[in-house]
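In this section we turn from sequence analysis to structure. A common task in structural bioinformatics is to predict how a protein folds when a small molecule is present, because the ligand can shape the pocket around it. The inputs are simple: the amino acid sequence and a SMILES string for the ligand, here zinc ion. Study the lines below before reading on.
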Amino acid sequence: MFYIHCPYCDEYRDEEEFHPKGQAHIARPEDPESCTDEQWGAYLFFRDNPRGIHHELWVHAIGCRKFFNITRNSASYEILETYRMGEQPRFSAEHPEGKSAEQGAAVNVADEAGVVAGQEGVKA
Ligand SMILES: [Zn+2]
């Protein structure tokens, strides 16, 4: 059993409250009517299955019921961050150590440093 940080509730909650919904950041074709069958089929059915860092869509099903993204290492199961819809991930296969704030990192990073910084902010 482990805990997942919900970026909307801003709490670590039991994994059983969440459901994975597959690969994140899949762009719907801008004009579905002009897609080829191959393009539409690729959008609907084909997903990456990388070994290492990738991004997943999850929902806090027994909680706020909002969708958010998780950056996870599929080899170690480590969750590197969670972030809200519309935000960009800090970690990626191209940036395994994480982007700096200047490079457009996500605001809600679910690492221990973020939690400590947040708690210190409350005490101050
Ligand atoms: Zn939540």
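The first strand starts at residue 3 and ends at 6. As an exercise, try to locate the residues that line the zinc ion site and compare them with your own expectations.
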